[in-house]
Give the backbone structure.
Amino acid sequence: MTTAPGPRPQQAEIRRVRPADAARMRALRLEMLADAPLAFLETLADAAARPHAEYAARVAYTSQGSDTAQFVADPGGRLVGHAGGTVTPSEPGLTVIYAVYITPAWRGGGLLGELVDAVAAWSRACGRPELMMEVVVGNDRAYRAYQRLGFVDTGVRVPHPTVPALTELQMRRPA
């Protein structure tokens, strides 16, 4: 359980998504894209246009198995944080962390570390001892936050997948 910053103490359960979370995951996804449009691989308009059935199918798929998983911070009511993990065929011992997000009012209260730890525990349970993530070059706040969680800049730079003018850097740490 984590206490959020601010005057009202709140707690959030960190857990893997469940099929019943589909509507709340859709709401969180739209918030993520509105708040940080360059950090994710689709536009707010595209996500908003996607039918609920697609969200439901994605959540059901990531709620089980060892290929991909999504973890959420759930205080009851709307979800306030997310981190996903997925395999990469080229490195069987690696889990790539994706779509990390904390609702602004909940930032700075430890949820980021708890979400990454949940992905790490799942990764280890699946036999993958290493984590990797990509951060947009210049996103210093995220870069510093991931450094505090033990991620190290590998020196690898890759083009941003949807915005050609941007570059991402790769960070790794043990799971």
Notes: The helical segments are 22-35, 44-49, 52-62, 111-125, 140-148. Confidence is low (pLDDT under 50) at residues 1-9. The beta strands are 13-16, 68-74, 81-87, 94-102, 130-136, 152-159, 167-174.
